[in-house]
Amino acid sequence: xxWLTAFRAIVAREALRFVHQRERFLAALVRPLVWxxxxxxxxxxxxxxxxxxPYQTYITYETYIVPGLCGMILLFNGMQSALSLVYDREMxxxxxxxxxxxxxxxxxxxxxxxATAISILQVYAFLAIAALFGITVPGWGxxxxxxxxxxxxxxxxxxxxxxxxxxxxxxxxxGVMNFVIFPMFxxxxxxxxxxxxxxxxxxxxxxxxxxxxxxxxxxxxxxLYLRLEPWALLWVTLATLAFGALAIWGYDPxxxxxxxxx
Amino acid sequence: xxxxxxxLSFSYGARQALDAVTFDIAPGRFxxxxxxxxxxxxxxxxxxxxxxxxxxxxxxxxxxxxxxxPRRALGAMGIVFQQxxxxxxxxxxxxxxxFAALHGISGREADTRIDAALDRLDMRARAGERARALNGGxxxxxxxxxxxxxxxxxxxxDEPTVGLDAASRSAITDHVHDLCGDGLTVLWATHLTDEVRxxxxxxxxxxxxILRDGRAAEITAGSNLSDTFLTLxxxxx
Lengths: 262, 237
Hints:
Chain A: It is a multi-pass membrane protein. The structure holds two protein chains of two kinds. Chain A is mainly alpha-helical. Chain A has eleven helices and no strands. The model of chain A has no long low-confidence stretch (mean pLDDT 86). Chain B is α/β, with parallel strands linked by helices. Chain B has two domains: 1-60 and 154-237, Rossmann fold (3-Layer(aba) Sandwich); 77-151, no CATH class. Chain B has eight helices and ten strands. In chain B, strands 6-7-8-3-9-10 form a six-stranded mixed beta sheet, with helices on both faces. In chain B, strands 2-1-4-5 form a four-stranded antiparallel beta sheet. The radius of gyration of chain B is 18 Å and the shape is globular. Classes of the chains: A mainly alpha, B alpha/beta. At the A-B interface, α1 and α4 of A face α1, α2 and α3 of B.
């Protein structure tokens, strides 16, 4: 019972923090919308798409990148969450959480769940705006994508959590942006299908194929069209467990993450 | 004993921060942990609150071993960190509710306890104010009230008066001394000798070692605590 009380409180606090940071919500939406409405419009003419699963007909480029942009929101939010964790640690408020009489893995999981719930809300806001511009998916797709978004959000949030445990100073966070977010996003199937990537470079294709973000995007893509991609599900589940384990290890008191600033 | 530390050692690489620190604090006592900057107070605090752990030594809070029963031990202690840990965008009550929930206390029970804790620190009237709007002294009081919500047996405070004016310092020191009258054990880390009273249990920590452990009046033996402290730490240096 006390575990659930703490869980609810941590999730509610994340939500409250989000309400207090409306700019963050807008920024999280503007980024994928610019990609969807500006970048995709330019690319539509240059990039031809064949019929590939889960699509059963030719689709516009805008339709193709919607799942990737959903992933982009989750990815950036995961990193934003990591940034705020590093900030909380430097400012001290993380200590309050870590000294609560509950297992650390549970406290971290609660924080992760809260951040993921906020990310999912943003994805739905994005999908609603995309629908206003005529970029839609099957009606039930908005429901079936929910578990895929949750799992992908947990995976990317866990990655952010793990990274935050290794970043000693806030100033180092820019490096994470350059070395994690951008390669993860661009070396994936978010913007172009993997077969298209293989045409230009087999090596890049292989890198994309092992990138967990690729599988998160494909999981979302298939779920939006009422289909399950088992291989993507397996990849994302394994990556979530691996990143989660890394985060728990990173925040282990025996590792002394906070000792330098204690 | 409310707080028992035995043979606690810790090092940052080659630098020894704590060297076989041992002490016990009896229930209901105010214990001042006095040490100059760099003495190891914050390291000791980090270990007592399990922000990090060490293989060398043992800590027990209200009889619960921090290593083998961390949840019980942490549940028995209230903590006030040196840096403020209030969420400045939340009201005082919201901050306390959040903390209560982390300890598994919610609903009416949480509100009752929050009111009682705020009353003890004369902060009830400020419950609806955002933490950001409070001055430094009131923020500290809110943090102390928060640390009492789950009715801990031991209260740990790490230099809680840093950055406060003389009046606020004095008020907070008085408040926390008063809490001991209710049976609460207090460990108060400080480098300011004027926060220690003659009847307090005093630990003098320097270069990671306990130099003196006893009643303040007995350690000073009639002389001024500042002079005693300076003499001891100079000799040890």
